[in-house]
Each structure stands twice: as C-alpha cells, then as structure tokens.
C-alpha cells in the first residue's frame, strides 16, 4: 500500500514550499500537498485537473491506469510537460548530461539542481513534481539526506524527492526522509549515480550465457525485487525500475503494492518515464548519441526542426532579407522623420541623416497627408 499520504507530507510541504528561502528567489506555484477541507476550513480541495496528488496517483494505480512521467529541467520544458497532462514531472539529475553536457550524472550539485527545480516549479501547475537528490547530497548520513530533501521542497518547490539505490544506507535514508514528512520515490536496477562500482552504464539482472548461469545470477535477479520491497517498506510511494529485463520488472510490479515506473524495463510496470530531450529527438550531436539510451523511442525530431530554423535564420540575416518591414513594427510618421533628419543636420551629423533618409525609403514611410 502507499505508506506516504498527503497528510504525512503536509507538515513539511505546505507552508515552507510556498516561498524559497532567503536569497533563493520565490517559487510561485500551487502545491499538490495542501490541506483538505476535511481537516482545515481554509483552502478548497483541488480537483484532479488542477493538481496531481499522491491520492490521485494511488487511485490511478488501483484502477490499473498507467502513470505517465517525463523529465523537465527548465520553465519551457515544464510548460510543455504540464500542457501535455503528464501525471508526474521529474526534475532529474540527468540534467547533468542533457543540459550541462557531462558524460554522467555525477557532477551536478544540489544547488544546481535547486535552480532547475525552481524553474520547473514556475512552469508546471498540474503534475506532481519530484526532484532528484543528486550524488553527494544524501549518502553521508540520514541527517544529510533529510536536510537535502527539505531543501528540495522548501527552496525548489518540489512535492517529493527521488533517490537512487537499495543499499542499506540508502534504505535508511529513504526511511528517514519519509519520517520527516517528505514523500520519496525509490529507484532500483541501473542506478546511474553508482557507475563507479557498476563499471559503467550496465543493465541490471541481464541474463548471462548458459555456462555462467548460476544461483548467483538468479540471486541478482531476485535482489532487484527484494530491494524494491525494502524501499516500499521504508515508505516510498513509488519505485523507478531502470534497465532491468521485463520479467524482473513484471515480478517486482506484482510483488509491490505501490506503482513501479519503468525506464527501459518493458511494458509490465505501472507507468513509464522518459527523458524530455530523448523522447523529442532533440539532439543529433555525437556527444549525445553516445549517451542516448537504446530503450528510448523518439516521438519527434525536434533537433532537426531546430537546426533547420537556425540555418534559415543565418541565411536570411546573411542575405539581409531579415528583418524586413513586417518584422520592423516600430514606426514614426513622416512629419517626425522630417524633424528628426533636420535635427541631425543641425548637429552636424550629415552622414547619420543620410543613413536615416535611406532607411525611410527602404521602409516605405509615406509622407503624412496634408489637412
């Protein structure tokens, strides 16, 4: 079942998240974690069309309706995700790769993530907002994890946080954050922040050639399910399953009583998540090609559209066909032009007056008719 309810996250999420801490800049948005009129008489209940809440997600999960999740990293992408009606908008630490150009997610800091979170919070008014705790912001101790999670809500305007991994220390961190009144999404399978010990971006639980199959391999497969169950027990409201075989994801989804969100984990999860830039086909650069996941379907070729538009702009500027009269909207009438040219001549700026007169002819400013 869902171990985290709206009432549990209310204490940490309602008042603090309505504004950023001093110096961080205001985050102006309606939060999904608001008091209901069954408890308080002030705010009116928000409908599903206004805000997605943990209660909405729980109801959707129980009805067997797939949950849609897309990442966003700034105001424009947040507006797009919001307009499309996604259930969850994840401000992922993948920003390190698709926004900042790194090869991994490790370099991005909590302060940098908070900038992305605040931008997204201004643009997304409907989905539940989940912020990724970046590498180095929660591993040291449960206290550090709680402090970082609080900043995600208070300064970043998030509704919940996500953390990676199922090691005992990560499960302890998740439990501590939940007990602090903050909703947590878990993440198992391929955990990009752990590439140092994984040896790179490797799918987890992948079947080995027949001679290598053993109880050890089966134990790895089962461990994915066990880890997801441990995170559920810690209080997570959902689990991301990344880069695991479909049967393993199906087993985890069946064993859990909270939604699973798949990414490269097949069709048997409770929902799916993709990276904004990947699904839109935004990049064709070789750097991005080497980190583009095999499991991602491109639903558009936005990168081609962007490149075409930029090349066309460059060509028109080079040929001086842009801007023309249509895109030079600020006009002055003929009498004012005459006065302007006369004033330039009086000040001894003859060449400037000649240039202005030529511009009048080019822009076709007609003389003002006599009364």
TrEMBL record:
Catalytic class of the enzyme: transferase
SUPFAM superfamilies reported in the protein's UniProt record: Phosphoenolpyruvate/pyruvate domain
UniProt catalytic activity: (6R)-5,10-methylene-5,6,7,8-tetrahydrofolate + 3-methyl-2-oxobutanoate + H2O = 2-dehydropantoate + (6S)-5,6,7,8-tetrahydrofolate
Top-level taxon of the source organism: Eukaryota
GO biological process: pantothenate biosynthetic process
Keywords, alphabetical: Pantothenate biosynthesis, Transferase
GO molecular function, one term: 3-methyl-2-oxobutanoate hydroxymethyltransferase activity
GO cellular component terms given for this protein: mitochondrion
Biological role stated in the UniProt entry: Catalyzes the reversible reaction in which hydroxymethyl group from 5,10-methylenetetrahydrofolate is transferred onto alpha-ketoisovalerate to form ketopantoate.
Protein known as: 3-methyl-2-oxobutanoate hydroxymethyltransferase
Annotated source species: Spirodela intermedia (Intermediate duckweed)
